[in-house]
Amino acid sequence: MLKIARKTAKILLPKTTVYYIKRQLQEKRFQKYAQEKLELNYRSVDPGPVPPKELIAKTAALNEQELDKQSNNNVYFETGYLEILRLFQILEHFSINLRTIGSIYELGCGTARLLRHFRCIEGVRLVGSDVNPKMIEWCQKNLPEIEFYHNELKPPLGFAQDDSFDLMLASSVFTHIPLDTQELWLAEMQRILRPGGIFICSVLGKFHASTLLGTRQLQELETKGSFTLTSEDSNATYSTRLGGSGWDVIQTRAEIIRVFGSYFQMIDYIPGVQDFLVLRKPNPAVSVVMNTVPFPAQKF
Questions:
Q1: Class level of CATH domain 152-283
Q2: pTM higher than 0.85 for the full model?
């Protein structure tokens, strides 16, 4: 009955109303979850403003139709709440206590669509960086509680010391880092993550391979383990063609495990629209037993 009601509402109600309702539902779900897990360490914060459309275009659009949707105020927040809740659930699944996280860093933070929501953790240090200086300028003006820095296309990160962060994120970042610098960034992430810390990042796998690549390109992907589309390729994502990044980097599961597993302990490989990796920097001084049950794959 609930599914029927949802389908009926989508047909009868204006899109703007549907977007508003979905945003409200996701926001309440996230806040309820965060309050239950953080208890006295939870604080309520205003989510902040929505960035201009031209910035969103460089971070979250497979095509022009999706860009129009993502630029809607309520969709921007609804998808942010949905994704941050999933991140919180992944951390809980692998016994990572939100109340013990003191510092979080996001590489390629964009307009801080995700990072801003971690402000609900009382006293946490939040740091974001991006290669696009316009993103960082906007974030610094609109989200002053978070530290923001501009980073270059290649490491090192001048603002980050060794073993600086408990949790690190890179959503839709290694999906666009060219292969000749991918391992340089993995080494840098390993350097700044504290022993025992968790690194969650996304990669382009099976879904994007089937969506973006033709038959010959798929054959090359299987042979070489990777395939890169540039901003000049007509089948590249809309964000890449607009110059949000220069590349769409698609890799096979085996290649991802080989490369990322060379720098971190791989806790889980979660399939989805983008595949998410849960990685850990081992701490020889502390014996930790983590949940070995895989986190549920994303449904799409």
A1: alpha beta
A2: yes
